[in-house]
Specification:
single chain, seven-stranded parallel beta sheet, 9 helices, globular
Length: 279
Amino acid sequence: MSRSPRTWFITGADKGLGLETAKAALSVGDRVVVTVLDRDGFHPLADSFSDRFRAFALDARDLAALPDVVAAAHAAVGRIDILVNNAGFGLVSLAETTKPEAYRPLFEVNFFALVEMTRAVLPILRKQRSGHIINLSSYAGFMATPGFGLYAASKFGVEGFSEAVAKEVRDLGIRVTIVEPGGFRSDFAGPSLVQGHDVPADYAALAEVVTGYAARRHGKQPNNPALFGTALLRLVDLPEPPVRLPLGRDAHDAITAEVQAVQKELALWRDLSVSTTDL
């Protein structure tokens, strides 16, 4: 059955998973609007898809500019059906040694920009009484690991915000999905990763995690970026999409193990948990 083309709005689509999502959407005849860091709004897909593709310059840290970019994009294409909040970067560093100037920009991009982009697009989706918001988290947004405490915290924030918004807008015809990717062979462990180097002797066992992560992981992750966009195409076609979607066997298995561990711990300490209830 044929359908009308959808319009995607994808942040941080210069490269990586955002770029692959844009390619996938264009491949099925949809329209795509993206944000890019290039101040001239340059994007390599523009020449090949000039009738269905628009790019707007945006630094995700410039929260004041977000509403204007959304307004310009909406004016250019007329509607937004799918928002993909993809812009973000990684940080591997010890919690104790990571200074505010290193982790605050992480939250500005990974969390606050996502919140403000969602807030700017929601009035459009409410007026349409339709739309799908896809917020990029990580399996680190469900379970934290050593060296990724602050990155995980930024993604935990994404998950809590997104879960609440999903419940707030469900009766308005709007769906929200938190996508939790595992390791993809994108640039996450390369240019998009900030890496700490200050490892005190007491943390010697974690030194390789902090200082060697990029060299150990970059280009060796188990998941294919080209399949990420294909998975999102399947997701947006679902009549009742999930609120959470791990992507990658590594993400699915890790989250499954974490859920089982939490269930075991809840059962073990139930008596203490309920000991404060007297009504």
